[in-house]
Amino acid sequence: MAVKMYSDTTQCSSTSDGNSMRGEVSTSSMYQNYSITANLGIWSISASPLYKMPRFFQIVSSSIRNVVVISEPTSQLVSSELCIQKYGGVLSGFDTMDEINYMIGQVSVTKILFMNEFHSQFADITVPLFSSTTSYPWDGFWINGFRKETCRFSNQTDPDCPGIKGFTLTDPLLSNTNFYIWGFDKQPNGMSDGLGTSNCIVIRINGKSGGGMDDIPCDGSQSGSVYINGYVCGLRPNEI
Fold it and tell me: 104: buried, middle or exposed (CB in 10 Å: 19+, 13-18, 0-12)?
């Protein structure tokens, strides 16, 4: 821990005005904030709980992304609200291929160490990954993105509609959209059914491979091939 203080050489500062009085300690598997307050010449040091995870996704915007495994399928809206309410985060995406590959590698086994939805803080928890439903070829995890109203039907030929350009992204932690990599089965294809309801995005995973991104209805229904198993929640380290 290091603290930079603006003071004379004879006494400690009695206030925190103009001083650096907060910081963090982190490694590849843990994170902890600390802060220092000064009152009547007494310094008090406090720290957040020591958060542990199997791996942080440290990216260029200095944020962390976590996969939250849920107990039963839920809508994109509910998942987004859970990310905000439980973790102070935002439904997120991926900034690098390493992030995607790491997630795929972790979920290729029958059990995974990740955050459990019902656990109050970050910890190494073993939870079942795959659903007991065998009729779905893919497990899906909600990521950030909501289709623009001008890009919901195949007859809408706005040049800003192809691929990820047809979606509004609200994740301030993303530095690029290069790793919104769509599924090989001609995704995104939600504009082609004439319903105008496939307006949210999941990343698909099955066995030892990923299936790219897919656009499906935001309530998770009528997807036909994706069982919603969780969501990707992003947050800045000092928000944990």
Answer: middle
The CATH number of 55-239, from 1.10.3720.10, 2.102.10.10, 1.20.1600.10, 3.10.100.10, is 3.10.100.10
Express as a percent the part of the chain with pLDDT over 90. 20
pLDDT of residue 202 exceeding 90 = yes
Q: Can you give the pTM of this predicted structure?
A: 0.66
